[in-house]
Amino acid sequence: MAILLNVRLPQRLGLYCLEIVDHQLRSILPMAKVAANAVQAIDLAGDWVSLGGVDLQINGALGLAFPDLATPEELGKAADFLWHQGVDAFAPTIVTADGAKIRRSLSVIQAYQAMGERPESATVLGAHLEGPFLNPVKRGAHPGEHLQPLAMETVQALLADYVDVVKIMTLAPELESESGVIPWLRSHNITVSLGHSLATAAQAQTAFAQGASMVTHAFNAMPGLHHREPGLLGAALTQPQIFAGVIADGQHVCPTMLDLLLRAGRGTPAQGEGGLFLVSDALSPLGLPDGTYPWDSREIEVQQGTARLPDGTLSGTTRPLLDGVKNLVQWGLCSVEEAIVLATERPRQALGMPTLAPRQVTHLLRWHHDGAALSWQRI
């Protein structure tokens, strides 16, 4: 048993005492109700405590690209690594590839999930299919030869026996000539995210009305905000129930535009509403040094944690999720509390997962800010 005193909790005022037994959070009490001589107590002196991060867009780690998954053991190594990076759960993201290759990766994820939970290993929530139903004009680093038309028959053929393995699907809604795909995906509990898209605001609003509830890496692979055509992102910012992922590495979105997003009311929305959440968008060299690495049939060059194709196209990052929390605080865009929420509470809310509450089996992070730097450790 552990008793933690003088704890700050995201989205709660004041200081608290936490009682933890066998990784179960037994109780949360205001400090005013705690006996002064509590035994086995650890004074956190006002540090923040949160759940671990949840990464809903991560493409690989330790040299493994998730579209190249061959065995459950490979996925287990990545899950173990992410646990030690402060991540409690993640959605292995499979980018546009040959259909057979995508289904092979889905079969490995399915086999891994059937093995059950592992101690000190991040939970695999299910796959995030980022493609192949993307707009070719906004495909970014996705290979154009494997893009597919967005239609019921192509979606059902791709998913085949792996519908239950897919947790999130990113698609460009303007590609669909007849409605039906988004409601069908939602009927199978797949969260629909809009991205790699040229959707107008009207097309995006139609997709939201059909059940889409997320936006993939805000600002990236979509038109920027325009005063006459707000586009996909503008539509999302006016819909209080919509969640939007964002990459806070300083390269995908400059801090000025991140500030604009946060000021647009998506930083600390009311309970039950959507908002911004952090994703890493990390590629397979996550956990490896800078250098040149294979990526599908091409190569990427990683410099200072940013990955690009040989033609300079931005393809991702090798920064872990919680670096984004540190960046937001360092740049002065968020309080410590707000930044923590964006990586821990908000992605859970986006998928309807439970957030910090008593009677949960949970694993906690302790955050310390010394006025200059933010650091974390597992409790």
TrEMBL record:
Keyword Cell membrane belongs to the record: no
GO terms, molecular function: N-acetylglucosamine-6-phosphate deacetylase activity
UniProt entry tagged with the keyword Transferase: no
Keywords: Carbohydrate metabolism, Hydrolase, Metal-binding
Similarity annotation: Belongs to the metallo-dependent hydrolases superfamily. NagA family.
NCBIfam families xrefs: nagA (TIGR00221)
Protein name: N-acetylglucosamine-6-phosphate deacetylase
Organism of this sequence: Leptothoe kymatousa TAU-MAC 1615
Lineage: Bacteria, Bacillati, Cyanobacteriota, Cyanophyceae, Nodosilineales
Gene that encodes it: nagA
